[in-house]
Amino acid sequence: MIPKRVTLENFLSFGPKQHLEFDDGEPLWVVGGPNGVGKSAVFDAITYCLFGAHRGGKGQGMDELVRHGENGFFVQFEFEFNGVGYQITRNHKLKGRPTARIEQQTAGEWKAITGINSATDVKGWSERTLGLPMEAFAASVLLRQGQADEILNATGSKRLETLKKIIAAERYEALSKRVHDTATKRATKLEDLQSRRDTMPAVTAEQLAEAQLKQDAAAEDRDRAEQEKAHAAERVSFAKQWAKHEDARRQLAEKVAEADARAADAGRIQADHLRLDELNRVLPPLNQLVPIRDTLAATETEQAAIHQQHADTAAKLAALTTNLEALRLAVATHRDAAAEHAKEAKRLQDEIAGRKKFLTAAEEVAELDAKVKSFDPMLDRQATDAAAKLAEAGAAGQTARDAKTRLDTLLMQAKEDQRRLANVEAGVPCSRCGQVVTAEHAEKERAEIAETIRRLTADLASVTTQVGTAEAAVKTAKSSQDQLATVIRQRDQSRQRLADRQRDLEAFGGTSDVAQLRHELAGQTLAAEKSEHARNEERTKQERHEAELKIAEPTFKPMEKQVREFAARLQKLDTQLAADTATCAALASALSAEWAATMAAELQQHAHEQQRLASSGVAEEFRLWQQDATRREGWAEQLREIAKQIAAIPETARVPVVEAERLQKVATDAAKLADTAFGVTHDDLANLTRQAEALATLKKQIAVAEAEARVHKRLDELLGKKNLQRELVRTAETEIVRLANDTVRNLSNGDLSIELDHSEDGGDEAFALKVRREDSPPIDVAYLSGSQKFRVAIAVALAIGRFAAGQARPLECVIIDEGFGSLDKDGLQATAEELNNLKQHLRRIILVSHQEDFTSHFPVVYRLHKGENGTIAEKERRG
Predict the structure, then answer these.
(1) How confident is the model at residue 601 (pLDDT cuts 50, 70, 90)?
(2) DSSP three-state, residue 17
(3) Which of 190, 319, 457, 793 allows an S-S link to 149, with CB 3.0 to 4.6 Å?
(4) Superfamily in which the 2-131+809-877 domain is placed by CATH
(5) What φ, ψ does residue 268 adopt, rounded to 5°?
(6) Interhelix angle for 439-508 vs 379-422, to 10°?
(7) Ranges for the Rad50/SbcC-type AAA domain (predicted)?
(8) Which strand ranges, in their side-by-side order, compose the sheet holding 813-817?
C-alpha cells in the first residue's frame, strides 16, 4: 500500500479542507510541528477511512472527531495497492447517517466500486484487499505514538496471526482446509462402500439357473390361461346372439296370437268405430253452437244500457271544454300584459344603472382632482437632492471599507511575521532582510514588528469607526429617498387615475353636473317603480285564472277517456252480436235438424259416450284389424329365418348371457393370476441378476476409493499446520529477523542484534524474539530500555514492510508516529541515516515528529501549525 494523499476537513484540529500529498518523486516524508497541532490526526484519518476506527476505538466516539462548532467532518485517503489506485471517502454528520464510498482509478478516471453500500462494507473491503485487520495494520504498517512496540509485547498467538496475514497464509489455510475436507469425504465414502459390500448378499450360479427355470414354467402357464380367456370371450359373444334371436322369435309369436283374437271380435270393432266417427263429426260444432245461442239475449240487453251512458257523458264533456278554453284565453291575455310592463321596467333599470355609473365616475373625478392638487409641487426636486446625498454617503463608505481591508491584510501579515520570528535562532538568514540573525538583531526585528502591529491596530480601530459612521449616513439617506419615492409614486398613480376617469366620462357622452345627474336618476327610478307595480297586478290576475284552470283541467281527460270507452264498448257489442248471429247460422247449417236441436243436457251425454269409445282403444283395434291380413305372412317368414340363425349357434353356447359372462370372469381371473405368477418369477430373476452386477461394480468402486483416500490423506498431512504452513511461518519470521538485524545494528551502532527464541517454537505461536547486546546472553525484549525497545520495534516494523514488499500482498510502506523522544542525539542521527537508507527498499516511509533536530535530516517536511480556523499544512522542501 502506497499512501498518495490525505484530505481532512473539520476533522479534530483541522478546519477548512487541507491536503497532504505524497508524490512518488520522494519516498520518505516527514510530518512535523509542535505537540497538539494535529499530527496524529492525519493517521487517524487514514485508519478511519480504511477501517472506520481511530485511537479511541472502532466505531466509538465518532462525534468527538468533529471539530468544535461544526456539524460534521470529511476525510479522504488516496493510495496505490498492487499497481491500482484507490480512493476512500467518508462523511460523518452529527445529525444524519454517515456515508462512505470506494473508487478505483481506471484510465485516469475515478469509478465507484460496486457492492460497497455502507461503512461496514468499506471495512470488509479494506481487510480483504490489504490482507490485514486493524490490529495487524497498526502492528506492521502504522506504529502509533506509544504503541511502536505493540508487536513485541503481543502474545505468541497474536504474533502468529499477524505474521500469517502478512504472508497471506489464509490461501494455504484455505487450500489445506479444502484438502482436509476432501480427504475426510474420501475416507467416509470408502467406509460407506465397504459397509455396503459387507451387507450385500452373494448370488450363486445355481440360484440364477433355478430362477430361470421357474420363469420358463410360469410363462407356459400364462400362455394356456390366455387361450382359455379368449375361448370364454367367444362364448359370451355367441350367448348374446342366441338370447337376441330367442327374444325376436317370442315377440313374433305374440303378434300372431293377437291378430287371431282381433279376427274373432271383428263385428264389435266395426260398430264401435262407426259410432265414434259420427260423434267426432257432430260434437265440435255443437260445442260452439249451444253456448253462443244461450248468450245472444244477454248481449242485446247490455247494448241498450251502454247507449244511454255514452250520451249523458258526451254532454258533460262539451260543457267542460267551453269553460277550459275561456280560462286559457284569460291567462294568456294577462301574461302578455305583465311581460310588456316587465320589459319597460327592465329598460328603465338599465338606464338607471348606466346613470349611476356615470354619477360615480363624476364624483371620483372630483375627488381625484382635489387629491392631485394636494401634493407638494417640489417633490421631484426633493427626490433629486436625496439621490445625490445617498451617492455621496455610499462613496464615503466604500473608501472607509477599502482602507479597513488594506489594514486587515497588513495586520495579518505583521502577525505572521511576528509568529515566524518568535522562535528564530541565531545563525540563520533573516526572512525579512536576508542578514544572518544575531540575538540583538532578532530582538530589534521583534520590537519593530510589535510597534507596527500596535500602530496598525490603532489605525484599524479608527477606520472601523469611520465605516460605521458612513454606513449610518447611507442608511439615513436611503430611508429619506425611499419615503420620497413612495409619495411620488402615490402622486403619479392619482394623476393617472384622474386621466382614466376623465376619459370614461367622455366615453359616456353625458353631463358631468352631479346635481343634474341625481335629479334625472330620481325621475327614472319613479317610472321604473310604476312599471313594476302594473306588472305585479297583471301577474296576480294571471295567477287567479291559472288556479281555476288547474282545478278544471284534471277532470277533462278522465271524462274524455270515459266517453271513448263507452263508444268502444258499444262498437264491440255490435260486432259481437253480428258475429254470434252469423256463427249460429253457420254451425246449424252443418248439422241435421235432429242434431241442431240438441240441448245442453243432451250435449253432455254425447260427450261422455265419445270419451268412453275413445279411451277403449277401438280406433287402434280397427287399424290393426285392417293390417292383420297383409302382415301375417311376413311374420311367418321372419319366424323361419330366426330358426335358421339359432341352429347356426353351437349347442354349448346356447346358455344365458349371465352364465357365459361368469365363465369369462373365471377365465380372466385365472389369466391374471398366471400373469402375476410370471411377473414374480421374472422380478426374482432380475433382482438376482442386478445384485450380482451391483456387487461386481461395488468391488471396482472400493478399489478406486481406496487409492483416492490414500492420496488425499497424504496431501492433507503435507499441507497441514505441522508441515507446509509451519514451514511458511518459520521461513517468514527467519527472513524478517534477518532484515531487522541489518536495521537494528545500524540504529545501535552494532550494539544490538535480534534472534528467534526457538524454546517457544510451538504450533500456535510465532515470532518469539530475543535481543543480544554485544556478546552478552540474549534477553527478552521486555527487559530492554525504552530507547532499545524503540530501536528494535522500528527495526522489526521496517523489516516486516521490506519483507511484505515481496509477498502476494505488498505493503511497501511504514508509518512511524512519534516515539523518537527516547533516543539521544546519536540515536536520532543513526535512526535518520538508517531510514534514509531504507528508501531503496520501501516505496513510502512517513515519519511524525515534533523534534526539529530529527526532522532536519529529511528533505521533505509537512509543517503543521495552528491557523485562525484550524490546523494548516504547508509543504517544505529542503535543498
Answers:
(1) confident
(2) coil
(3) 793
(4) P-loop containing nucleotide triphosphate hydrolases (3.40.50.300)
(5) -60, -40
(6) 160
(7) 5-194
(8) 142-143, 813-817, 844-849, 28-32, 860-867, 870-877
